[in-house]
Amino acid sequence: MTRSERHNLVTGLLFVSPWIVGFLLFTLYPVGASLFYSFCDYDVLSRPVWVGTLNFRDLAADTVFWKALSNTLIYAAFSLPLGLATSLFVAVLLNCDIRGRSIYRVLYFLPSLVPLVASSMIWLWIFNGKFGLLNYGLSLVGLPGPDWLGEQTWTKPALILSSVWGIGNSVVIYLAALQDVPTALYESAELDGAGFWRKLWHITIPMISPVIYFNLIMGIIGSLQVFAQPYVMFNGAAGGPNRSVLFYAVYLYENAFTYNQMGYACAMAWIQFLMILGLTWAATRLTRSHVHYGG
Amino acid sequence: MIKSWSYRAVAVGLLAGGVLLAATGGCRRSDERTADGRIIVTYWEKWTGFERDAMQAVVDDFNRSQTRLEVRMLTVSTVEQKFMMATAGGNPPDVVGLWSPSVNVYSEKGALTPLDKLAAEAGLAREQYIPVYWDLCRHRDFLWALPSTPATVALHWNKRLFREAGLDPERPPRTLAELATMNERLTIVEIQRNGKLERVRFPDLTAAERASHQFEIAQLGFTPAEPGWWNPMWVYWFGGDLWNGRDRVTPATPENLAMMNWYRGYADTYGLENLRRFGSSFGNFSSPQNPFLAEKIAMVLQGVWMYNFIDKYAPTIEWGAAAMPAAGDGTGAPVTIAETDVLAIPRGARHPREGFAFIRYVNTQPVLEKLNLAQRKFSPLAVQADAFRKAHPNPTIDVFRNLAFSPAVRIAPRLVIWNEYAIEMNVAMDRVFSGLAEPGAELQAVQERVQWKLDRVNRRWEYTGSQRQQEWRLTRDAL
Q1: For residue B94, what is the enclosing H or E element?
Q2: N or C: which end of chain A has fewer CB within 10 A?
Q3: What does the DSSP assignment read for B159-171?
């Protein structure tokens, strides 16, 4: 390396130093430290004690851990496809040339601007077994509404239904992609006699498949990390009736900050990270042949 | 050109370093003294509203009396987590207001400063306090805090609803059997009879109607699930305990089993769905929709603080407070749960002696009485001034204070894992109440799971205990 090149390298490094320092201190160090602590008995206040794989072995024997994991996977299995399909459907509708389109777009995006804690409080009242709006609506058509938040059978469906509330961000991303689909393709298809569904299936979905894939990955990450809504609606560690809505991130948080078992929580965090990594890899493999990147 | 860019780059780098230092520089405080040279004592407290105002008045009095110190109180939400993080980060407040169940948890983790020496120097001793409150501040033979505003719990009853049910409004239940009988009298249900909706008292239902649970509860006498804050400790009213005081948890005892069956009995009698639906109609505790304040429930177990909420949201209801009945013939010592807010000094506080000067000030009789009069609680001291008693607005304050002296006064288990234990018990009780599990099997499952956790803690204590106690002694003696 010449002197000039070295000089340029130093200059460049100095320019990016705020990011590098921030990354090292606030990302890489905590990630590395959490890996170390996952092999320690650590309560934040006392010195960590190395316990090898004890935390991971304890997790394997922890029935609540498995309950939280299964709750999370069930929630993700339903809320993810529901969110993807609903947001795509809404985006397609909002992409149609209708009067007041901008207003509808704003209306659909607005809920995602409401803080999760505030919207959780609203959902608490909507799902109220006695005075809730949802049960009132069901009573109008002669259906007896369940105690959504009090019966373990209905707690997860309630949360899955309310997760659709926050699809605004996905809708905006889909809309951007939909507007990039060349209209010539639709015109050709129409000349060949294609209707709405054929155009959707053979043109729209293949053309926006990279965005669907992106939303899928973000959805996997988001649904496996769901925290605020169940935490607020079901009083944190209690996890609702029979722990039916004790989710992974809530149990992790409780271990870290209520029980002060930071080592145990770090082990949980690493398992969650590996799980998300694995699912993202699997999703990438499975969708590889269905995702088309245009030229 | 390169040279000028490199100067700029160095400047940018320095700027980045400066930003970083600024971001982390909060670790050193430069505002440790006031303009007139008084040492600033930082004090974090959880209270808001009138409770905060009451303590602020005490702080103001203290500051007026001082030429050397100035206490600055800050209301902090989720104070326990924030104080723990601040302590771990080496930048805690000088004084922190906690709850008594946290004392053993945070002292054992080394987050608090032992106060034995400072308390002894100040002439503070157990005999000056109601014993249970002094004991709540101790853990493993060290003193970690001093009480500020204490509490006990008692049965609150609605006299008007008693009168309407044909019961003596001045006579609350004294045994669990009386509680069950009165409960039925006080419970009103709505039921369809011959196509008409009728409103009847529970004892007026036929046996078939009771068994069918085909009614809706409009008013309930009592349910142990409301408010549910002390569910894991209901066993105290059955003469049982939750641990052996050393190394074993004991949820699967005959007393706990009797408690669990009693708890489940409410669902069997009134119907799980009916109770759930009725529970859905309750508003927040701190609101006029609180079921006791809205006169939907005639009896409820609550703490001394309940008077404040009655006074604020339902000042016209007629009510009384008495010891919650226990199992047996009602002749035993009254049972209650005692807890208290406490003031403690975090480990690593910059001004522990100065912080203790404030805690000592609060723990004088006039100040504790001023604070507890404003918060409408009772003093944790063994003696109280007549003027305090006469000025107290809560007409039942003696009930709560006398309960604190009862030989059967109980406290939450002094376990580091009490949080987890309580959650396990709550889940188990909910499962039993919902008919998802049998009491015996469920209590056995709690036993195994919580003992497993306690064993982990005990193993760690065996490893670190002597070293930790040595550290505590050194810290205590160095103050």
Answers
A1: none
A2: C
A3: HHHHHHTTS-TT-
Distance from CA of A267 to the nearest CA of B (A): 16
Burial A76-106 (b: 16+ CB within 10 A, else e): bebbbebbbeebbebbbebbeeeeeeeeebe
CATH number at residue A210: 1.10.3720.10
Question: Residue B20 and residue B13: Cα distance in Å, rounded?
Answer: 11
Q: Is B283 on the interface with A (CB under 8 A)?
A: no
Question: Whole-angstrom Cα distance, residue A123 to residue A133?
Answer: 9
Residues A43, B42: Cα–Cα separation, whole Å:
25
Looking at the complex, does the CB of residue B426 fall below 8 Å from at least one CB of chain A? yes
How much is the average pLDDT of B386-395? 95
Q: Please report whether residue A25 resides in a domain.
A: no
In chain A, how many domains are there?
1
- Report the pLDDT averaged over residues B267-288: 91
Here the ipTM equals: 0.78
Q: Indicate the residue type of B468.
A: R
**Number of Cβ atoms within 10 Å of the Cβ of B321:** 24
Task: Say if CB B110 and CB B87 are below 8 A apart.
Answer: no
Asked whether B369 and B384 are in contact (CB, 8 A), the reply is yes
Contact A234, A245 (CB under 8 A): yes
User: Six-digit token pair at A90?
Assistant: 């809404």
Question: A207 is in which domain, residue-wise?
Answer: 49-119+152-290
Grade residue B8 by pLDDT with cuts at 50, 70 and 90. low
Inter-chain residue contact A14 with B13, CB threshold 8 Å: yes
What is the dotted CATH code of the domain comprising B30-150+339-412+459-478?
Answer: 3.40.190.10
| Position B295, amino acid | E
Closest CB from A7, A11, A238 relative to B423: A238
Question: What is the reported pLDDT for B17?
Answer: 58
Judged against a pLDDT cut of 80, whether residue A69 lies above it is answered with yes
Domain parsing of chain B, residue ranges: 30-150+339-412+459-478
User: Is the pLDDT confidence value at B10 over 60?
Assistant: no
CA angle B113, B128, B393 (to 5 degrees): 105
Which of B109, B347, B419 lies closest to A43 in CB terms?
B109
Among A256, A70, A62, A251, residue whose Cα is nearest residue A152: A70
B87 touches A at CB < 8 Å: yes
> Which residues of chain B make contact with A121, given a CB cutoff of 8 A?
none
Q: Which residues contact B21 (CB under 8 A, 6 or more apart)?
A: none
| DSSP per residue, B221-271 | S--TTSS-TTGGGGGGGGT--SB-SSS-B--SSHHHHHHHHHHHHHHHHH-
